[in-house]
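[agent] plan:
  1. take the single chain provided in the ticket
  2. run structure prediction with default settings
  3. attach structure tokens to the ticket
  4. add a short note for the reviewer (M.T.)
[agent] executing step 1
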Amino acid sequence: MIDKLSWITVYPELLLLTMACVIALADLAVKSPRRTATYVLTLLTLGVVALMQAMYASGGATIYGFGNMVVSDPMGNWLKCFATIALMVTLIYGRPYAGDRGMLRGGELFTLSMFALMGMFILISGSNFLVIYLGLELLTLSSYALVALRRDNATATEAAMKYFVLGAMASGFLLYGMSMLYGATGSLDVGAVFKAVNSGQIRHQVLVFGLVFIVAGLAFKLGSVPFHMWIPDVYQGAPTATTLLIGGAPKLAAFAICIRLLVEGLLPLAIDWQQMLALLAMASLLVGNLAAVAQTNLKRMLAYSTISQMGFVLLGLTAGVVGGNTLSAANAYSSAMFYVVTYVLTTLGSFGIILLLAREGFESEEIADFAGLNQRSPLYAGVMAICLFSLAGVPPLVGFYAKLSVLQALVSSGQPLYIAMAVFAVVMSLVGAFYYVRVVKVMYFDAPITATTVSAPADVRAVLSLNGALILILGIVPGGLMTLCAQAIVKTLGT
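[agent] step 2 finished; step 3 output follows
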């Protein structure tokens, strides 16, 4: 018999699943080529789900359900709330673009997006290896279909095939690592694995062997070097609306499984996985920033930028356990959470502008396409500049404080190696500033290629303006979001 508490942990998921099925059926009766009714119903559902998650998160309770397979805690609930809002923003930005390219002939864009979000929810809530894997597969299978949504487009189909092949390999790595840990510990439950590893009675070599595969699988999902091969091709080849869907909200879920598996399940092995993450972080910062400098395609440049940004998230995760003690764990993991939340906010804005400038038969994804944008539309040029400067880490924007919080977590450890890593990250950020500033230079100082003014639907214009304003406001007063992340991590780790 399943107790009432178990159902409480999954009420938002049940609502999302029910409404995804209802919307899929209701869409069959929608005649509008722009799928207005489906779009409105989807946004209303997501709004209610986000509100439920925020209420759960502000309650601060941690509830385990279904025999400890699922957990509802402040960190998970806030990440689910932010992921839902990110998906709402993605659909608002992406609908005009999708409509112009025949991607709204059916309601697949909306229903697949909701199933992808369902996968993220299961991933974030999973406290059992099988549940985590189930969430991962639901998210990735929905993503493959979304990348291939433009069936008549050869580039999108090629991107979907690359994503599918490499994604399957990543899932295999993760599954193999989990099976090794299950063989060693005799349990699929994250909490039970922690106790078994902590007992010190299991051979270290077996645990580390499984750990290597788990870290490799997680690195694929985050897009860290050397498991980054799919990111530039998929970002460039996928329809831009889908690129934003893959590059935004799922990063929050990827961060959550890093915490669930590595921190909640394998913290006694921190000395081993922190070394692996440190190498991945250094390589991601180096390759991501240097490769981005050579790009002329903006989507591809932002893909390499994502790789380097994920390097910073990994740096935050490496500084949790120092010299065998966990005193700095909450500080380090909350800085990584703050970084990933602000990164998703900035990504939404930058891809929102690319989607806005694209029109029928013209993708607007080359850097040269942004020439003279300031003369054509000062508002959108300003929002894009804010997003790029934030990604570069220029004060007083939120990206600066995100980088600063991760660097502070590294430096406060007092370890020479971590301080050296912080210095390296700063140097790589300076390299990264070049390719962001280059786009700003093209927008403000180059002559426009076309004289057409930029027009946008009212909802897109309002959300884009709010998006840009939030990046600036959270940069000026970052304390609220930082405190929220810190409290969420402390309460989650406390259980």
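[agent] step 4 note for reviewer: The chain has one domain: 4-493.
[agent] ticket updated
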